[in-house]
Amino acid sequence: MKTATPILATGAALLWASTALAQGYAGDVAIDADDVALGAKHYSPYLNQSYPNRVFFGDTHLHSSYSTDAGMVGNTLGPDEAFRFARGEKVRASVGDYAQLIRPLDFLVVADHAENLGVASMIEASNPALLENAWGA
Question: Which residue, among 85, 66, 61, 86, has the nearest Cα to 76 in the 3D structure?
Fold first, then answer.
């Protein structure tokens, strides 16, 4: 026996989504002071706030090709490309395909290691200065 529940649920979700977008809920949501019920003092200091708290999305620990743990496994993108990608620009990924975020990040921390900084790209390029050193060779 077939049931209409999935169709009704899908229809309700589409109705909610179209209503939300029509009311402008795609971005930040504003709360008017009239929407906050002021009354007796409550424990939470945030209960009577008449403004939304904003959530930020980003990455707090990204390694570029400058770090050996990323550069030695095939990452060819440096910090400049990482920041361009985080801002929503289209960049060519290490595998050759283009990649772009649908929504830019709010923040990005490039956390490259100080030890052996840039050695992976020097090895890939067979840098003569690196190969002169016994450790580098």
Answer: 66
